[in-house]
Specification:
Shape: globular
Mean pLDDT: 94
Strand order of the largest sheet: 3-2-1-4-16
CATH superfamily of the largest domain: FAD/NAD(P)-binding domain
Distance between the termini: 58 Å
Low-confidence stretches: none
CATH architecture of the largest domain: 3-Layer(bba) Sandwich
Bound molecules: flavin-adenine dinucleotide, iron/sulfur cluster
Number of strands: 16
Structural class: alpha/beta
């Protein structure tokens, strides 16, 4: 065992410092500073190099965390980067936005023994940023071009990871996306203060430089059908994510100034990228000077409240029907929102939106938590005669997302979906019921995480390669 490791009893846990609250509230920059080299090395040396690394077991990509921590502690940073990127197509993204408390870090053995987890996410980000700075991150260089093509629908993390894996093996890859920029939710969903957009643009440029073709502003179902693409390519990946916002069927829902979360976040992200956004520029989707209420308790709701703070809202409240302990959002993000001045109205369920034409206030019931339901979470129950009013002139609904009706949209009625509308996929092969059509990411799991989308994209690439090899050998036999 290297003398440089097992320092967790001597060296305390440290994350890169968070920027001052008053400063970070005024801009959209990421809130964590970078590790300096010495700190990354020190923090890596805290790893106890367990025989069974639970961090790795609980990382969806099975990242070889103990080995790249050891290499970092020894100052062998290029090797650390090579190892880290061998299982992850975007380590700098995961290092920033994985909910590490529920994945790798939450299962770190020294965390369990009360010493505080190794700060795995921050080291992962550091290793990769250092690699970019040193020019070690290079575009794909194909050794043997293969004359088979794959069409990928959707340029989110699932599509990008699959594309990279296939292109590296020599296949010709075209990614189609209905948005004007690649990246999916990495570019238009997740705000800059969690993930600055240069990080995403740098990645997609690298993939373009490696020969992957991007076709933007191209919607399958409008500009071409799924069948058109099947005729054009040897295999297809569907990685379209989930975008249908869940609705609240309550009186007043049709009043003005009530918006779905993605409209609000996309407008803000587009402004950050320098675009003209009419609904933002005319003040409609801008929280400045307004009393904002966000309904929901997940990560999307946290992104909305914190965006509203940065747009200089007069007040920002988050309305959630359970309590803090039972919130689905990451506790790290809730803490960040609280620090930035967001007021949480726990145990509150909306009863009615009120106003003449525009929303003016919300009528809300107080909730108590009852017995656990089948998922183990305690059921919210309305308290009798407990209703109260919350003033608001802009409401953002962040209640989650469902899949769009893809069989109809794609003009492929025979594409099988589950009862939730996600694409039915064989999880061993990632293949749908249509031969040569594979699927990955949120569209098979429902709203999930970037790291799972990357894992699915990589798994799909393995199966697509097998499928294409078989197809080629069958074609050669016939010829
Ligand atoms: C606000 C928000 C914050 C989040 N924060 C985090 C976080 O902090 N950490 C984390 O791990 N995860 C987070 N997530 C979840 C994460 O972003 C998703 O799980 C992940 O992006 C899913 O990847 P994907 O490739 O499956 O789909 P997406 O990223 O959704 O990409 C799908 C792409 O398909 C395109 N598309 C859809 N339909 C068509 C069509 N018909 N034709 C052509 N193109 C189409 C879309 O334009 C899009 O570019 C967040 C999600 C949201 C909404
Ligand atoms: S990809 Fe996510 S879960 Fe895996 S090591 Fe990195 S931060 Fe942890």
């Amino acid at each position: 065992m290297s003398k440089k490791m097992l320092k967790f009893t001597d060296i305390g846990q440290q994350n890169p410092p968070k920027r001052e609250i008053d400063l970070r509230k005024d801009d959209f920059k990421e809130i964590y500073d970078e590790f300096i080299n010495e700190k990354a090395t020190q923090q890596s040396s805290r790893c106890s190099q367990c025989g069974v690394p639970f961090c790795q077991v609980h990382c969806p990509l099975s990242n070889n965390i103990p080995d790249w921590l050891k290499l970092t502690a020894e100052g062998r940073l290029q090797e650390a980067y090579e190892l880290s990127q061998s299982t992850n197509n975007m380590p700098e993204v995961c290092g920033r936005i994985c909910p590490q408390d529920r994945l790798c870090e939450g299962n770190c053995v020294i965390e369990q023994s009360g010493h505080g987890t190794v700060t795995i996410g921050s080291v992962e980000k550091y290793i990769t940023e250092n690699a970019w700075a040193n020019g070690w991150v290079k575009p794909i260089k194909v050794k043997n071009e293969i004359n088979q093509t794959v069409g990928i629908i959707g340029s989110g993390p699932a599509g990008l990871a699959c594309a990279e894996q296939l292109r590296t093996s020599g296949y010709k890859v075209t990614i189609y996306d209905r948005y004007d920029r690649p990246g999916g939710l990495l570019i238009y969903g997740i705000p800059n203060f969690k993930l600055e957009k240069f990080v995403v643009e740098r990645r997609t440029k690298l993939l373009k430089d490696g020969g992957i073709k991007f076709v933007q502003n191209f919607e399958i179902g409008k500009d071409a059908s799924l069948e058109d693409l099947r005729q054009k390519h040897d295999a297809i990946l569907i990685s379209t994510g989930v975008y249908k916002a869940r609705e609240i069927d309550l009186p007043g829902n049709d009043l003005e100034n009530i918006f779905p979360a993605m409209d609000f976040l996309t407008a803000s992200n587009k402004k950050g990228l320098g675009d003209k956004v009419e609904l933002f520029d005319n003040g409609k989707l801008n929280a400045e000077g307004k009393d904002i209420v966000v309904i929901g308790g997940g990560d999307t709701a946290m992104d909305c409240v914190r965006t509203a703070v940065r747009q200089n809202a007069k007040s920002v409240k988050c309305l959630y029907r359970r309590d803090k302990e039972n919130m689905p959002g990451s506790s790290r993000e809730v803490a960040n929102a609280e620090e930035e001045g967001v007021e949480f109205v726990w145990l509150s369920a909306l009863k009615e939106f009120k106003g003449k034409n525009k929303v003016e206030s919300l009528s809300v019931n107080k909730i108590k938590l009852g017995e656990p339901d089948e998922t183990g979470r305690r059921k919210p129950e309305v308290q009798k005669d407990s209703h109260f009013e919350v003033r608001s002139d802009m409401v953002i609904k962040a209640l989650g997302f469902d899949p769009e009706d893809l069989p109809n949209l794609f003009g492929s009625k025979d594409l099988q979906v589950s009862r939730w509308g996600t694409i039915k996929t064989d999880f061993d092969t990632m293949e749908t019921n249509l031969p040569g059509v594979f699927a990955a990411g949120d569209i098979i799991r429902g709203a999930s995480l970037v790291v799972w989308a990357i894992k699915d994209g990589r798994d799909a690439a393995v199966s697509i390669k097998k499928f294409l090899k078989k197809k080629l050998s069958e074609e050669e036999k016939v010829a």
